[in-house]
Amino acid sequence: MTQDTPARLPGHGLWNEGWPVIATPGQGRGWREGLRRGDIGRALCECGEMSEPLLSAAERKRWHRDVHKPTVQAGASAPEIVTVRED
Q1: Per DSSP, which regions of 1-87 are E strands?
Q2: Please, what are the averages of pLDDT over each run of 10 residues along the chain (87 residues)?
């Protein structure tokens, strides 16, 4: 975490400590039974902001800490992050 980013911003907590969330077209967002913490999925903040699909809980935590919260502090919406999966 950067020195200027507080550990907790009101209304901006990472959902379920980085558990993957999926976005289903027409059905909103949510979790799918069978997903595990290390599966590919989006990070979900309490404010409703979602990341692009990320490869692990660690990446989702990093997005929340290093991208979303500093962006909120700066007063803008978070940019999308694209992660390419290597097979």
Answers
A1: 22-24, 28-30
A2: 60 84 64 72 88 92 92 69 56
